[in-house]
Amino acid sequence: MAARLGLTGSYPIDADYKATFGLESGLDLSNGNAGGGIANSTNSALLFNRGAVLGVAHKQYGSIEAGLMYMAPFWVMLAADNMSANNYGLSDFSALFSLSRPEAMGKYLKGTSAPTLSTVNTGTAGFYANSLRYRTPAVGAVTGEFSYSMGQQAPGKNALKDDGTTWAFNVQYKDGPLYLGYGHMNYQQVNDVVAVVAPGVTRDQKTDIVGARYKTGPLTVGA
To answer: Which residues contact 139 (CB under 8 A, 6 or more apart)?
Structure first.
């Protein structure tokens, strides 16, 4: 798994508002290449391939951000994961994908040649381009997020209306040792590859995820 280089910060605008940003890139220290997450269908890593966001946050009303980012259900999966909760980290992408089903948590992207036509997906580490998200302020122990992506056309493909459009939300409860979360996502693909299905066929990929974690003494249980 690639090492990571990230920059994050904020700048106070006034007593209530602040501007925020976050940039993260994967690095393969063995050869100097970018890595650790492919963000487009050409299998080429972007400079900030692990997220690039710019936003504004308010003390009472929450925050809004735009850029390349995870969708809302990802945070439920991450918060309920015992390895992540105990700071071991998600150290093996293939194991993570096998456990959490990339077909459900990821998005399908059109390939350019067989056998990958319309079967390439980004899995749980999928980053969604041209995205917006709103995060609510905490109401007691409850927070929420709504995220929306306008999609990203694959190079050399026709501009197809609504291809890659994604919307999602989550609701999370965190109180001491207890975590509960629910997330929903709807990803839409309009396929223009004749070899797989007829041009213009639309398919919706819907995901629902429920996560929970509880810590008591040295024992942490999650699902």
So the answer is: none
